[in-house]
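As practice, study what follows.
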Amino acid sequence: MDSVTAFVSGLPTVIFVDTVRAAAAAKVETAGGDGQSAHAGTALAAPCVILVSDAYGNGVAGVTVVWATNGGGSLSAATSVTDAAGHAGTTLTLGPAAGVQNVTATVAGLAPVTFTEAAN
């Protein structure tokens, strides 16, 4: 919430207050955790995190994210909800085989985002 106060000599003070709210979700992008590597069968050091934003770049809170992975790994959460800043995340425990493993974040109505991780 922002406010502006106006002072004019001899008149009462006027305070203008506004509240900014994000518009509808328009974009999903990675915000951290892409391109990691670790030993097969272990959890990655950092979570895979996305940012859901509106057309003006404001984070959008309360958006449900569906997470999926391949390569036999597991996720700390199959779904999550964006926080007040528009972020949501999950942690990948890599599958047992070495190689590339992906995590995909899907938000209804928007293009999915894929994280590329490596098990060694």
In short: Residues 33 and 48 are 4 Å apart (CA to CA).
